[in-house]
Amino acid sequence: MLVLHGSRGDLARRMVYPGLQALAAADLLPERWLLLGTGRQEHTDDELADVVRESLREHGDADRADALDGHVRYASTFTEDEPGGLVDAIQAATADLAGDDDADVTVVHYLAVPPSAFAPTTRGLRAHGLADGVRVVYEKPYGTSPESFEELDALVHEVLDEEQVFRIDHFLGKEATQNLHVLRFANELFGGIWSREHVAQVQIDVPETLDVADRAEFYDATGAALDMLVTHLFQVAAQVAMGPPAAMDAQNLAAAREEVIRCFRPLDPREDVVLGQFTGYRDIEGVADDSTTDTFVAARLWVDDDRWRGVPFLLRTGKRMAAQAQRVTLVLRTPDELFGEPAGPGRVSVSLAGDGAIDITTTVKRPGPDLALATGTASLALDDVEPGDPLPPYASLLHDVLVGDRTLFTSPDGLRAAFAAFAPLLGPDRPEPEPYEPGTWGPARADALAGPDGWVLTRS
Ligand SMILES: NC(=O)c1ccc[n+]([C@@H]2O[C@H](COP(=O)([O-])OP(=O)(O)OC[C@H]3O[C@@H](n4cnc5c(N)ncnc54)[C@H](OP(=O)(O)O)[C@@H]3O)[C@@H](O)[C@H]2O)c1
């Protein structure tokens, strides 16, 4: 049973229902299952079923918008003091699912509610005796500062065992992010070059063309660095930088990620960070007239371990930029100049968008009589790989929660270390966001962070 807190919200509609639909289509849901949606108002089961169908028409497979029909119930949520309709509804749904054979029922609480509601909902679970044996999914951000992270985590561990907790960072759930492991650990061609000896820099570039119109209030209180950098980009950086785990299970992968995040040098906001704000941002409804919120961040992160010392990890993301992409690129060192001027650095580049793709750029001989060099790129679209049936990231994460696999979720020690590296950007040295025109690559100063060759995406 999936108890979905915030069942009429944006995330539920755009991600969770389409994710469940994809699982149903792939036959990955249990034979008997229920979605028990909840929220602060009274609604009927049918009203939520309408919301689900509408969401699938808009964000899922519109031809099968009735895919979750018959599985949807609704009950008003609890507060710490009042059980609402939810406590009885969980009991009734558990009894129905257990059936005559009294089967075990897995109960998952998914907190698709604003972060300010994470603590009250967690306390509500405790107050109403609902915490035992359940799994609880926390959306991001799990804390917005080192202090708020510690506070939330202390409460969560008062109420739940760590094994019950699933903290989402949906970049970790992406098919292509997981492919980074395989690319590296299953291929000596790549595994052998995965270090400072061969890699000159790593770029993790997530430009967005979208603005913030439908989430302006949330965004203005958060900004690009908190929304994206300390969360997704740091986690992807950890995924790239980590040492080989002892095994590919949840515990060992989390340990390997944590170990390398602990080696992230705290950001130097003056030297290594450029913040930006696109022109016109302050005119958006819901944004303060004098807002200093960053809609763009570029950061140079240093990973102080033996594998990566001296190799910059260049992280960039922003709104209203020139292109939309999600790319991890290892820019390789250029070999000695036996051939004169090198044609350009070799690159291994993984697109994390959609089903993912791997591009490998190498130096080759330019066809013709002279020994002249050129670069060429070979691409492998990951959905071309037979039998190629990838799940969307949220479907994959939901599936993992339902089967209890915590491999793709963040751990408290990893988040604690991420906040430690990020913390200087929350202090007095935080740079003023510099203006940039919509449709560009952000403030010019950010280009310089990437060195003389600049950002790969900007050039291509
Ligand atoms: N939307 C996205 O694209 C996205 C992406 C990544 C992560 N997230 C995370 O996912 C979570 C949900 O995001 P969202 O965009 O769906 O948010 P949302 O639409 O603002 O809120 C979701 C639902 O939460 C309920 N809610 C609002 N305030 C509440 C409160 N104080 N206490 C209890 N319930 C409350 C509301 O339902 P009722 O009015 O029915 O109670 C609302 O429909 C957030 O933590 C967000 O950071 C969202």
Automatic annotation (TrEMBL):
Pfam families reported for this sequence: G6PD_C, G6PD_N
Q: Which positions in this protein are listed as binding substrate? A: H170, K174, E208, D227, K319
Q: Which domain of life is it from?
A: Bacteria
Q: Report one GO cellular component.
A: cytosol
Question: Under the GO molecular function aspect, what terms does this record hold?
Answer: glucose-6-phosphate dehydrogenase activity; NADP binding
Listed A to Z, the keywords are: Carbohydrate metabolism, Glucose metabolism, NADP, Oxidoreductase
PANTHER family given for it?
GLUCOSE-6-PHOSPHATE 1-DEHYDROGENASE, GLUCOSE-6-PHOSPHATE 1-DEHYDROGENASE G6PD
Q: What is this protein called?
A: Glucose-6-phosphate 1-dehydrogenase
